[in-house]
Amino acid sequence: MPAAIPAPERLRVPHQSGAASQVRRWLRDSLPNLPDEVRDDLLVCATELVSNAVRHARPLSGGDVCVTYELGPTDVEVRVIDGGSRTHPHVCAVNLDSAHGRGMFIVSKLSTDWGARTLGDGTQEVWARIPVR
Known about the structure:
With about 130 residues, this protein is of the alpha+beta class. It contains three helices and five strands. A hairpin with a 3-residue loop joins strand 2 and strand 3. Helix 2 runs antiparallel to helix 3. It is globular. Keywords: ATP-binding, Kinase, Nucleotide-binding, Serine/threonine-protein kinase, Transferase. InterPro entries: Anti-sigma-factor_SerPK, HATPase_C_sf, HATPase_dom.
């Protein structure tokens, strides 16, 4: 019988400004054996994805967002599921004078791949893959 594939780890956090710090703490505690530079990149990407969900999307029906991660042999993938929004995440031209708009640019530079999709129930999933070096 083939080995079972482990289910991704999940955390639900309130759809509010403090959500990103809860996610960072959870990821740090859940993945203590990741090399520091990989963990740092993962925490930055997760922070950006969660912050964007809180800023630009609706909460899930429970008033929260769901964050998952899955550790593979070559990368760790983080996903944020929210209640959906009228806009789709995209990389903006970087404006160093702006207080906003650099998040997905940062995610695109730290990850090997990232994407977003609207699910059948209207929720939105945004993900990024961070290489494990």
